[in-house]
Specification:
Shape: globular
Strand order of the largest sheet: 3-4-5-6-7
Order of helices and strands: EEHHHEEEEEH
Strand content: 15-25%
Largest sheet: 5 strands, antiparallel
Number of helices: 4
Structural class: alpha+beta
Helix content: 40-55%
Distance between the termini: 34 Å
Number of strands: 7
Length: 150
């Protein structure tokens, strides 16, 4: 949330409001779906469609992240979460991809929720900046998503 120099609350940014509207629409769409299999298939199609809408660099990274998550953690179900690709276990988001363009950031993010089993002592990373997906990055993502659901 943004604030004025005086520290007074200004409200949500336009990007945050858009993400909340996306999330409300996702919930409405999911409620209209029929069987569990239909919901899962349509949710994955929604994720792929959202990825296809992204700008070049974000789209390329999101496609790779999607492929890596689905290959390394098949128990995770693709779904949209605040307008971004996410992957859930038993309906709870475990990890997500956030494009740089959506929030006008300088890098995309691969994030993990508190559902991810990435605990390492008293402090661990829950978000990772992505500027490109190299072979080394692919290996790290595969390792992280496997650990997240183990």
């Amino acid at each position: 949330m943004s604030s004025m120099e005086s520290g007074a609350y200004e409200g949500f940014t336009a990007e945050e409001r858009a993400a909340m509207k996306d999330h409300a629409q996702e919930l409405k769409t999911a409620a209209r779906r029929r069987s569990r299999a239909d919901k899962a298939a349509e949710a994955e199609q929604d994720v792929l469609a959202k990825i296809a809408e992204m700008q070049d660099s974000d789209r390329t990274m999101a496609e790779r992240v999607h492929a890596l998550v689905t290959a390394n953690a098949p128990a995770l179900a693709p779904k949209l979460w605040y307008g971004m690709p996410a992957y859930a276990l038993d309906g709870k988001v475990v990890c997500f991809f956030q494009s740089a363009e959506k929030f006008k950031a300088r890098y995309a993010t691969l994030g993990f929720s508190d559902q991810a089993k990435l605990d390492e002592g008293p402090m661990w990373a829950a978000g990772f900046a992505l500027t490109e997906v190299t072979a080394e990055v692919e290996a790290r993502i595969g390792e992280l998503v496997k650990r997240a659901v183990s």
